[in-house]
């Protein structure tokens, strides 16, 4: 592996661990982030000439630790006694411990603290835990880079000013924190599953993998919570399809056209087991449990023609009662198209135009329904709008091909 590839891989795999380690030691997210970024910049400069070290993660953590100490000395951020303590501390960090590692969970809970605004929690988590750059996060939020930089800076400042602790909450505090934490995990997973921005990979498995890892840890803390189990099942059933989602040419492959033989059967089995366990409790399901059940129906069908669309529509009816959002209504319309026809679905979709005019999936769904109804010029215009708004490279390639096919008919 060449130096550039080694840096990229280590960043994907160990950024969060390095930031978490530095945050634990120095108690300052700003110092931790800057020192980690400086360490990776040093690796980009030195590794091509000196070679990739035997333990890249430890090398980067040691380098970042020294850079953090240099910054503290330079800026006088600690008194003499604290600086002396830092200097006496062994600069050689322990080796990353692997998949289950509480430091990243502590970092995650710090980034998701309820004192922060919801959009700040997601942005900070994507930066600190996910390792996304500020431009990437800005694209995901559809805001300017300067605005996103300010949002993240303010969030870190608030953590420091409010002395938000770097720890996993006590057991009695977890239920209060849970809803916000699960929402952030879901958004982090979605950013990996359908990554935004023209300069990123269409699927970012380091993000989906980290979201699943953290959700497993939350489940270990709260094994009886239905929504934690539901979110984990939803992630597993979605992740199971990742190898079939993008073609060799870099184009999105829709669920209808995916090679189901390429799906990960172990992840599907685990997801189905979680869904069955929740159904067996007889408790009323929450949003994530219903979404998981919808995905369980999809992944139960060996052929798309075997899909039980009536069950999927019934589950969406249940989901609409829990989450009456226009996006849920849009997804329900996709299922209705298979059950009642594209004309019925299009009428439902068009009723959402005032709320989803800026959402690419709204236009992509309309385009597909119009195509199926033989309304080519209208479908082409809808594809154009979807292409303009889509940020995922694989999705853009798919939509472009579908639009161009209309011109040849």
TrEMBL record:
MF GO annotations: DNA binding; sigma factor activity
Location of region: Disordered: 75-96
Annotated ranges, domain RNA polymerase sigma factor 70 region 4 type: 111-159
Keywords per UniProt: Sigma factor, Transcription, Transcription regulation
Basic and acidic residues bias: start-end ranges: 75-92
Pfam families the record matches: DUF6596 (PF20239), Sigma70_r2 (PF04542), Sigma70_r4_2 (PF08281)
Domain DUF6596 intervals: 177-277
Domain RNA polymerase sigma-70 region: 17-77
InterPro entries assigned to the protein according to its UniProt record, in alphabetical order: DUF6596, RNA_pol_sigma70_r2, RNA_pol_sigma70_r4_t2, RNA_pol_sigma_r2, RNA_pol_sigma_r3/r4-like, TPR-like_helical_dom_sf, WH-like_DNA-bd_sf
GO biological process: DNA-templated transcription initiation
Coiled-coil regions, chain positions: none
Family: Belongs to the sigma-70 factor family. ECF subfamily.
Protein name in the entry: RNA polymerase ECF family sigma subunit
